[in-house]
Specification:
Radius of gyration of chain A: 23 Å
Number of helices of chain A: 9
Helix content of chain B: 55-70%
Largest sheet of chain B: 2 strands, parallel
Low-confidence stretches of chain A: 1-9, 269-277
Distance between the termini of chain A: 27 Å
Distance between the termini of chain B: 18 Å
Shape of chain A: globular
Strand order of the largest sheet of chain B: 1-2
Mean pLDDT of chain B: 90
Number of helices of chain B: 16
Number of strands of chain B: 2
Strand content of chain A: 25-35%
Mean pLDDT of chain A: 85
Oligomer: heterodimer
Structural class of chain A: alpha/beta
Largest sheet of chain A: 6 strands, antiparallel
Helix content of chain A: 10-25%
Chain lengths: 362, 368
């Protein structure tokens, strides 16, 4: 298993590492150490699954024991989890749904996604003893400090996870904050953590939970939600959920001049907004430019037509000079005809075409 | 004059028409698609096993050289270290830098970052090998790997009195092969012909100088120094391991494109080349070596040069698997599939070097 890179080494270390090769090969040491104890690694952080809990028909929680290298997390933060699926290292970001604990265990909660990938694989293969690669926790979606007197939390579906970590933290601190939590979900079967939230309500006297099932009660309009909270203007709002919900809420809050009070967490990078008409839009993350996939042309030619200058070599799919990382979207390889929509994979610009909107690191 | 030398080696008229070439491309593309779709854990395991094997061998070799005594441990150390270097350069470095394992999304096996244990800088290699050689295989004047700018291997290359000494040049190149490969992409020839400024030469040499210093430091300063009074043993051992690696890689690589029946092409004939034409040229310009599994591994599967040139970014252990199908396709299209044992192929390379040291006549002159 390989490590999730954290940062580049300074040049002199690179030099020394090169000179001492293979003694300095971190990957080799990792494999060697991993044979002794699967949690040991000199570069990455590994974690062992110690328990698996079924939360609903399509959602499970995994309790992980991270190696000592892991520096812990603040409630609301997320981490990158990597697993090797049929020889390919795949990664996905998950919010930590537990607060810091004395036994250093952490919990992630994952809903099975339609396209399979990491969540589908973990649903099928995650069991006690499985070792995965994780990154340090990161993210700025945190409890405001000091904790304000009044909070509004809005969770859509599995967006409850970072908020749950915050609630656990507040309960551990015996916090008396007045918290209104709106928990939105589609079907009754997708109601997550009902028991755990009831338990938290007992430990947090200020917490009131409003569960809203859109299949039974109809879709909750952002405006109605805002109106049902009389002291909205005095509450700090923490929001996490699917993109349409977040956009609706953000619009209503902006209308009421409450942008300052709104804190949000999203996992997908914001989509490029320019020209959502005809043609597939490609977002070049490095140069922050958007260009259009020209029909019958490769991504490389399309980028060049838009004035971008990606590196290139043979322009025939041989040399990989134009290789770049695709963050999201679906591409078709013109040589093999294979279509792929996996996040974070390498694509050759000269023999690829976009089949959906893309994000590329060029 | 020798019979082999007068055989026309340049492809001027090929029997395959444009439609047949297109069909050929379709059949070969189908193999590529099939293999790409089946990549998985098996390939990942293979390359990781190779990395483990190369590293274990390097540690054993360096350990024996540093801490062993007596000639037997020295010889074993040299063999282990040479084996490690050959495996790392051929089966791991060359193949990883072709992007054969990029699909694994593993940074330690990515063509974007891998650097191999040889003096040739990765930047230079990616250009001279992946861009120029693989694209323009055996096109005289465009494939700078053809003869490495110092050997005359076909009648169509210009003869010069100094060419008479080319068996000697070849011996030197084989002994110092990693250095030949390392300075190849600086393109010193252009500088000597006055087509490159001193400033550009300096600029182009930078990756080479930096890599060469690091490699020399490692093999001839650091590891000998770590062995204290045993330093002569380590220094000499490293020198011999590098020499063995140089001779082996040189022999394998020269068998890839310079054997008796490996054809050359000229710029004009390949100007508006189709994909089918490109595939055809890759087959006609390459030659395979036959041998056991260990032989294929130690050659980095360049023993399947034809398959490698058709699909340079396919994981190499797949080449022996698809070889029978490629061979069958060639048979149906009437394309010569150049494959023989190592000694036969290498013998024909040496013969070619010797024959073309003499002023063999160009075919045009013959026609007139």
């Amino acid at each position: 298993m390989t490590s999730i890179p954290n940062h580049a080494n300074p040049p002199f270390r690179h030099w020394l590492r090169d000179a001492l090769h293979p003694l300095s090969d971190a990957g080799a040491w990792n494999r060697l150490l991993g044979r002794v104890n699967p949690l040991w690694s000199v570069t990455g952080i590994r974690a062992k699954v110690v328990d698996r809990v079924t939360e609903s028909a399509d959602t499970i929680s995994l309790w992980l024991k991270p190696s000592r290298r892991w520096r812990g997390h603040a409630p609301g933060q997320h981490l990158m989890l990597g697993v090797e699926i049929n020889g390919v290292l795949r990664r996905r970001v998950f919010s930590v749904s537990s607060a810091a604990r004395p036994d250093r265990l952490l919990r992630i909660t994952l809903q099975r996604q339609a396209e399979g990938g990491v969540t589908g694989w973990l649903h099928e293969h995650a069991k006690k003893g499985l070792v995965v690669e994780i990154s340090e926790a990161s993210g700025k979606f945190l409890l405001p400090g000091p904790v304000p007197d009044r909070l509004l939390m809005i969770a859509g579906g599995s967006g409850i996870t970072p908020l749950l970590a915050m609630l656990h933290r507040m309960a551990d601190d015996a916090c008396s904050t007045d918290i209104v939590l709106f928990q939105l979900y589609r079907h009754r079967a997708q109601h997550l953590f009902a028991g755990e939230l009831a338990d938290l309500s007992r430990r947090l006297p200020g917490l009131s939970v409003h569960a809203h099932c859109s299949a039974e009660h109809g879709r909750l309009i952002a405006n109605d939600l805002a109106s049902s909270v009389p002291d909205l203007g005095r509450r700090q709002t923490l929001l996490c959920g699917p993109a349409p919900l977040m956009e609706d809420i953000a619009a209503v809050w902006a209308e009421r001049g409450l942008e300052e009070h709104l804190q949000t967490e999203r996992f997908a990078a914001p989509r490029p907004t320019a020209g959502t008409g005809t043609g597939t839009q490609v977002h070049a993350l490095g140069s922050e430019q958007v260009f259009t996939q020209v029909a019958g042309r490769s991504l490389l030619e399309s980028a060049e037509a838009a004035g971008l200058q990606p590196k290139f070599g043979c322009r025939a799919g041989l040399c990989r000079t134009c290789l770049c990382q695709k963050r999201s979207g679906r591409v078709r390889n013109l040589l093999t005809g294979l279509v792929s929509s996996q996040p974070d994979e390498w694509v050759q610009l000269c023999i690829s075409v976009a089949e959906s909107d893309l994000e590329l690191s060029i | 004059m020798n019979g082999t030398a007068t055989r026309p080696t340049t492809c001027r008229a090929t029997a395959l028409g444009p439609e047949e070439r297109e069909c050929l491309a379709e059949e070969l593309d189908a193999i590529r698609t099939e293999v790409t779709a089946s990549l998985g854990e098996r390939d990942a395991k293979h390359i990781r096993r190779m990395v483990d094997r190369a590293q274990a061998s390097a540690i054993a070799g360096r350990g024996l050289l540093m801490f062993g005594w007596g000639p037997i441990s020295w010889i074993l150390g040299v063999i282990a270290l040479a084996h490690a270097k050959i495996l790392e350069n051929m089966e791991i470095g060359h193949n990883v830098m072709h992007g054969q394992y990029d699909w694994m999304n593993d940074d330690s096996l990515s063509s974007q970052s891998y650097d191999w244990d040889i003096v040739c800088a990765r930047e230079h290699w990616l250009n001279s090998h992946n861009v120029e050689h693989h694209n323009h295989t055996n096109i005289l004047g465009k494939d700078h790997d053809y003869g490495y700018g110092m050997l005359r291997l076909t009648r169509e290359q210009r003869w010069h009195p100094a060419t008479l000494l080319q068996p000697l040049w070849y011996l030197l190149l084989a002994i110092l092969f990693q250095w030949g490969v390392a300075i190849h992409d600086i393109k010193l020839g252009r500088f000597f012909k006055g087509r490159m400024s001193r400033a550009e030469l300096k600029q182009r040499s930078r990756p080479f100088v930096s890599k060469a210093v690091r490699q020399l430091f490692k093999d001839y300063v650091l590891f000998p120094a770590l062995a204290f009074w045993q330093w002569p043993r380590v220094l000499l051992g490293n020198l011999c391991a590098n020499l063995i690696r140089n001779l082996w890689t040189n022999a394998i690589i020269f068998c890839g494109h310079f054997t008796e029946h490996a054809q050359t092409f000229n710029r004009d004939a390949t100007r508006n080349e189709t994909r089918g034409g490109w595939y055809l040229r890759q087959i006609q310009g390459s030659s395979n070596l036959e041998g056991g599994k260990w032989f294929h591994t130690l050659s980095g599967h360049l023993s399947h040069q034809i398959e490698h040139h058709l699909f340079p970014d396919m994981p190499a252990p797949r080449y022996p698997e698809i070889a029978p199908r490629v061979r069958e396709i060639c048979k149906r299209y009437g394309i010569h599939y150049n494959s023989a044992g190592f000694w036969r192929q290498y013998g024909s390379v040496l013969k070619r070097i010797a024959v073309h040291a003499w002023p063999t006549r160009a075919p045009r002159a013959e026609a007139a």
